[in-house]
TrEMBL record:
Record-level GO cellular component terms: cytoplasm
PANTHER family, A to Z: PROTEIN-EXPORT PROTEIN SECB, PTHR36918
The species this protein was found in: Pseudohongiella spirulinae
Molecular-function GO term, any one: unfolded protein binding
UniProt family annotation: Belongs to the SecB family.
Official protein name in the record: Protein-export protein SecB
Alphabetical UniProt keywords: Chaperone, Cytoplasm, Protein transport, Translocation, Transport
GO biological process assignments: protein folding; protein tetramerization; protein transport
HAMAP family: SecB
Top-rank taxon, per record: Bacteria
InterPro entries given in the database record: SecB (IPR003708), SecB-like_sf (IPR035958)
Function: One of the proteins required for the normal export of preproteins out of the cell cytoplasm. It is a molecular chaperone that binds to a subset of precursor proteins, maintaining them in a translocation-competent state. It also specifically binds to its receptor SecA.
Ranges for region Disordered: 1-20
Gene: secB
Subunit structure: Homotetramer, a dimer of dimers. One homotetramer interacts with 1 SecA dimer.
Length: 166
């Protein structure tokens, strides 16, 4: 039995050395900050009153193929804090990554690019948002984790509901 396991492991290693792939391959190549901005148009007046802002948060993702099996994924976050009718600050961050996603079927690739990649990028974007806000002399913004799997599932359900019934 041990000989059989060794033989199977040897075959798998030989197949990988020959350049044959043993199924889908996913790898992170690079994470980078594509763009960021911080605006605080009403400073210093915004610091005079009681700090009780209304925060709005928008998030979206996009991806593009840059080579065979290699994709650029961009996570965009926009956070706006309004104090009464005045914008206290506006933060926009585009956190991006280059990912190898090879050997996936079309549906699986779509899911990986919409869920797995943004899950990897989000902590970096969250840290950038927090750093920009605190450097603007505002209280820290600690964004709650985002469930990209649930967002993807909701998006798929919405697409199916919008398709005309046959």
């Amino acid at each position: 039995m041990a000989e059989n396991e060794n033989n199977q492991n040897g075959n798998a290693q030989a197949a990988q050395q020959d350049g044959q792939q043993q199924g889908p391959m996913f790898a992170l190549q690079r994470i980078y900050l594509k763009d960021c901005s911080f605006e605080s148009p009403k400073t210093p007046d915004v610091f005079r009153g009681q700090w009780a802002p209304k925060i709005t948060f928008n998030l979206n993702t996009s991806n593009s193929k840059i080579a065979d099996g290699v994709y650029d994924v961009i996570l965009r976050l926009t956070i706006e804090a309004k104090q009464e009718d005045n914008v206290a600050f506006l933060v926009e961050v585009q956190q991006a990554g280059i990912f190898t996603c090879d050997g996936f079927g079309e549906a699986d690739l779509e899911r990986v690019l919409a869920t797995v990649c943004p899950n990897i990028l989000f902590p970096y974007a969250r840290e950038t948002v927090d750093a920009l806000v605190t450097r603007g002399s505002f209280p820290a913004i600690m964004l709650a984790p985002v469930n990209f799997d649930a967002i993807y599932a909701q998006s798929k359900q919405q697409q199916q509901a919008e398709q005309p019934a046959s």
